[in-house]
Every structure is written in C-alpha cells, then in structure tokens.
Amino acid sequence: MMTLRIAHRGAPYFAPENSLQGFEKALSFSPDMVEMDLRSCRGGHAVVIHDKTINRVTNGKGKVSKLTLEKLRTFRLANGEPIPTFAEALEVLRGRADIKIDVKSRGMEGVVVRALRRMGILRQTIVIAYGRKSLLAFRNEGGASLRTELGGVYAPHRRLRAVSSALKSGATIISANHTLVNAKFVEKCRSRGLDIHAWTVNTKQEADRLRELGVAAIATDRLDII
To answer: What is the DSSP string of 102-121?
Structure first.
C-alpha cells in the first residue's frame, strides 16, 4: 500500500503556515493532499488559521472568535498576506490536489459542507473533527461523499479509545501523533477497517518507519525530503 504525502498547513518550511503562498508552494511538490486549519471568526465567517489567537502568526493580537472578518483582514502574516478566508484557500487548491480540513471551531459543519458542495469538491475532501457529536454532524451534512477523520490522538491512552470513537461516529481515519504509531496500533486499526494518518513527520527516517508499518498517510512540513 502506498503511503500518501500530505502538505501540513501548506508548506510552512518555505512560507507562512496556512497562507495562500504556502498552499501554492506545497502544490509545487505534488502532494497527494493539502491540509489546512479552519476556525470561525466573529460573525461566523470561516478563516484559515490554526491557533485560537492571531498572536503567533500575524502582526496583531486577539482571539479569532472575537474578531470580525473585516478586522482580521487588517492584520498580516509574515509574508504580508492577510489571513485567508476558507473560500480563497479552496479556490487555490480546487482541482489541483485533494484537501484535508482540520476544523478547530465547533458548529462549523454546515458552513464547511455547503462550501465544499458549492465548489463540487466534497468527494475530494477529508474533514478532521474532534468528538463524536461533530463527526456525526459532518456525516449527516455531507453524507457518504465526505470522508471524516477523528482527531486528537496525541497521548498513548487515547489510542484504544480512538478506535471505538471512530467506529461509533462513522469516521474511517484516525489522526495520530507519529510518535504514538506502532505495529500494534496499525494492526488494530486495520483490523477494524480504519486508516491512520500520522502527523507531523519531518525526517526521512521517521517517514520510512511509518511507511514500513503500513500507515496510510503522512503529514509533513518537509515535502522536499519526504
């Protein structure tokens, strides 16, 4: 089985994470999929950013959920771009690579699925969600066309629970920190029809280990060496 390469937040080794420039750079490495993070700002608009605040990645400060889209767009990433909207990011990626969306805010299921359906890319997208309620909501909104992935496997004790949660919520993929992935976990998931997508893998040695284990996909900042 071929292990897929996922561009983690675009190409953050070469351009600001979750930037349009980063997505374009990621595409130049021909990944199987490009991943972005999504949050809802004040007013309900979907914007592409990982953190709860804009402090780390822009020249501004404040919580994403407390700032309007108009205010958010006044701040700049390190390359001078504003924080992208969901629609802008989809326009860059549509038809050029499959897309993975790590949905960080609650209650965005309808907004996300409507945008994907409007652009005709529901089948080319995977959505990462946290918790059974959100995963089921995405399944209800997107139907069988939308692939869903259980996020949040970042500690050893979460591995076994993740398998049960994924099966109960209709997810077919488990997102796991690469340090937690071993042969036993891979076999457990595989026996239940689940794939593992491992993050964030930035060395060739670790990528080779995970490929040998049969991990379905690897998310990386270093598409140039992975």
So the answer is: EE-STT-HHHHHHHHHHHT-
CATH T-level assignment (fold) for domain 4-220: TIM Barrel (3.20.20)
The one-letter code for the residue type at 124 is: Q
For tokens 């805010």, the residue is 105
pLDDT in the model for residue 1: 78
**How confident is the model at residue 175, as a pLDDT?**
98
9: left (phi over 0), alpha (psi -120 to 50) or beta: left
Strands (E), 11-63: 33-40, 46-47
Pairwise CA distance, residues 215 & 226, whole Å? 14
| Structural contact between residues 56 and 41, judged by C-beta atoms closer than 8 angstroms | no
Q: Write the burial class of residue 30 (CB in 10 Å: 0-12 exposed, 13-18 middle, 19+ buried).
A: exposed
d(CA 20, CA 89): 6
**Residue 23 to residue 10: CA distance in whole angstroms:** 4
pTM of the model as a whole:
0.97
Length, in residues, of the chain: 226
Give the separation between CA 53 and CA 153, rounded to whole angstroms. 22
What is the pairing mode between strands 98-103 and 33-40? parallel
Q: Which amino acid is at 118?
A: R
